[in-house]
Amino acid sequence: MKTPSLLRACALAAALCAAGGAAQAADFPDRPLRLLVGYAPGGPVDTTARVFAKYLGDKLGQPVVVENRAGASGMIASDATAKAAPDGYLLGFAASPSLTISPLVQNSKLFDPRKDFTPIGMVVDYTNVLLIGPQIPAKSVSELIAYAKKNPDAVTFGSAGVGASNHLSAELLKQQADAPMLHVPYRGNSPAMMDVVSGKITFMFDITSTAIPFVKSGKARALAVTSRTRNPELPDVPTMIEAGLKDYEVVGWYALMAPPKLPDAVRTRLAQALSEVSKDPAFRKAMVEGGYTVDDGDGKAVQARIEREYAMWADVIKSANIQTN
User: Strands 156-159, 203-207: parallel, antiparallel or unpaired by DSSP?
Assistant: First the structure.
């Protein structure tokens, strides 16, 4: 049995630890932060993360250094984020596929995206565009679907690889339209796009930022965007919902993630800084020019999207029997 003096000593020690933790949180951040990116340098996730890191560092008063940990379709970086010390000095710049698609496709047990993080908030959203070559006769999504049903071996779609987000976007179209369409996987988006332009494959989904130049040059035709509302850069292109697929909505996103059990004071400081970045006119302008829409959703919004999209893609993957291992 503990004596009163020992109990007082234990209570004092606990109080000192709590005070020390509170002081550390109050001083956060007092040194540079690291921002993990799960993709190679030079790609869209990396380039966006580097712009974001500069603005976040300015708001926090400390440098935010981007660190690339490519591999497993973004999951290597996400796993490192989930297992990092919960002090706020290592964060993850997560692309939605690495949390809502890749763990399912690869049947990964590295982490559970629904419970192994502290979401700080959304950064941006991005929309996919359904693109076909100019030589393809279909002028609308309904015409494409009708053509596929009439010619069951004629319609093919490309993707960046088995289980890529644009692969699943096309599988979702295939399932909702109940139309035969053959998947042709590539090693990346660029070779798939070249075959869309040349007519070797019928269509593919691509993100707005890289799709727009092909549309404006006439090398490809946009049939629809995958967001619920039209994209301001493509105002004449209908949404998939307007095109007749009332349940079709696919919007990719980037979010700021932290390890689980992050102290509330640190989470609040990071969320505040993220909110300041989202409201910065220069940051917003840079994101719009890159084909993105700034999203000021908080941590709860991120959590809700992870859970909703994880369930949606689980159904698509199961129905299409997709798995990479």
Answer: parallel
Q: Helix, strand or coil for residue 151?
A: coil
Q: What are the backbone angles phi and psi of residue 5, rounded to the nearest 5°?
A: -65, -40
Q: Dump pLDDT digits (tens) for 102-147.
A: 999 999 999 999 999 999 999 999 999 999 998 888 999 999 999 9
Task: Report which DSSP code applies to 240.
Answer: T
- Six token digits for residue 201: 């494959």
| Cβ atoms within 10 Å of 209's Cβ, excluding its own | 18
Task: Count CB neighbours of 147 within 10 A.
Answer: 16
In the chain, DSSP finds a helix count (H) and a strand count (E) of 12, 10
- Long-range contacts of residues 18-22, Cβ cutoff 8 Å, at least 24 apart: 21/263, 22/265
3-state class (DSSP) for residue 166: helix
CA distance 54 to 293: 18
User: Quick check: 131 and 205 in contact, CB under 8 A?
Assistant: yes
> DSSP letters along 1-21, please?
---HHHHHHHHHHHHHHHHHH
Q: Which two structure tokens, joined as six digits, stand for 322?
A: 């997709």
Task: Say which DSSP state 239 is in.
Answer: B
Mean pLDDT (whole number) for 45-51:
95
- Please answer whether residues 130 and 226 qualify as being in contact, where contact means their C-beta atoms are separated by less than 8 angstroms: yes
Residue 111 parent element (H or E): none
Residue type, 137: P
Rounded distance between C-alpha atoms, residue 184 and residue 198, angstroms: 15
Burial class (CB in 10 A: 0-12, 13-18, 19+), 167: buried
Give the Cβ contact number of residue 296 at 10 Å: 13
